[in-house]
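Q: I'm building a small set of examples for a reading group on sequence design. Run inverse folding on the following structure and report the sequence directly after it, with nothing in between.
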């Protein structure tokens, strides 16, 4: 059976976060192939009206819109990780109804390990909940073979799980644009220049980053770091930056579009990536693709060319940055990674229910 209508349900840009960017490229790919598609935004901008995207003002609005799109013949594509029970319930609702309409949903399982309730064995109730959800889905997309092995522990058929790298060549297609004057001035007046994409949430270990930056200032008095990302709940971190005497060294750029993001990134001397549960991470691969070295919190899925530190060890973070910056430029510049077009693989899974795992993987 071939599906001609796809509904993306998840965070839709803006803001330009990891999942949202991937969903945006999938939507663009579907439209280029003249496949009918729509989107329900469950992200930070879900209450802001935008062309081509359904807003979600309440749970009731979400519930009714899911029914409407299923009634109109759409196949649902949900997005989830194991960090939010609210998101789980929203996805479960969509997957149950999809079965009722005889049009089972596709689920993309985002992130790496560990997550709050993943892999199996971290919480019994969550284990049963994930088992039930995964049985309801017709296919499950994850971004790595190692994640597939963890999903198999929930007794899911192996042919239902399709590992597809989240990063695709579309991520590095951009146009150089002019950055704000204040940001250009900051970049010109600081060296070395660090780049950090973060949300102001516990899993980004910003206290560790703060202490690491304080340590680094003893070596690099004129360093500058640009913090990029949705700035909600950033007030406490800004106050801590000021209290530690780092205000002159930190620039808060907020949420940037793709062209601004990559224009800024290619000007950096180094990227600092602080989460541990982010899996491979698109921002890591974007940096490597532009030849920018990466210092990142250690996890099992980091590329070999990334310089890793222990996620909650500020001294290790600072020392790793020092070690990288002490290298000659040609030595610290990472080799360009192989970047296939994986969006087309994802579209194949969404559109063709008979497209087997072996054909896609």
């Amino acid at each position: 059976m071939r599906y001609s209508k796809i509904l993306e349900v998840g965070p839709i840009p803006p803001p330009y976060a990891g999942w949202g960017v991937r969903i945006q490229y999938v939507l663009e790919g579907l439209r280029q192939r003249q496949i009918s598609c729509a989107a329900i935004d469950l992200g930070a901008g879900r209450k802001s009206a935008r062309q081509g995207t359904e807003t979600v003002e309440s749970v009731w609005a979400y519930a009714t819109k899911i029914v409407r799109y299923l009634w109109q013949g759409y196949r649902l594509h949900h997005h989830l990780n194991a960090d939010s029970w609210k998101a789980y319930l929203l996805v479960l609702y969509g997957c149950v109804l999809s079965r009722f309409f005889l049009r089972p949903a596709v689920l993309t399982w985002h992130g790496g390990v560990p997550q709050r309730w993943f892999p199996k064995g971290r919480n019994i109730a969550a284990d049963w909940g994930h088992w039930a959800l995964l049985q309801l889905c017709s296919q499950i997309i994850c971004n790595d073979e190692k994640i597939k092995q963890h999903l198999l522990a929930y007794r899911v058929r192996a042919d239902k799980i399709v590992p597809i790298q989240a990063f695709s060549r579309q991520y590095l297609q951009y146009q150089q644009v002019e950055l704000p004057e204040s940001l250009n001035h900051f970049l010109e007046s600081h060296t070395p220049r660090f780049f950090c994409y973060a949300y102001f949430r516990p899993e980004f270990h910003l206290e560790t980053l703060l202490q690491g930056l304080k340590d680094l200032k003893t070596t690099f008095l004129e360093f500058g770091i640009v913090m990029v990302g949705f700035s909600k709940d950033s007030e406490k971190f800004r106050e801590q930056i000021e209290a530690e005497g780092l205000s002159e060294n930190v620039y808060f750029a907020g949420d940037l579009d793709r062209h601004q993001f990559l224009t800024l990134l290619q000007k950096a001397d180094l990227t600092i990536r602080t989460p541990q549960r982010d899996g491979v991470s698109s921002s890591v691969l974007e940096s490597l693709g532009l030849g920018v070295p990466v210092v990142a919190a250690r996890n099992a899925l980091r590329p070999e060319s990334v310089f890793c530190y222990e996620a909650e060890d500020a001294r290790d973070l600072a020392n790793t940055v020092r070690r990288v910056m002490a290298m000659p430029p040609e030595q610290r510049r990472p080799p360009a990674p192989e970047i296939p077009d994986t969006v087309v693989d994802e579209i194949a899974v969404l559109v063709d229910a008979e497209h087997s795992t072996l054909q896609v993987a």
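Residues 85-100 form the longest helix (16 residues).
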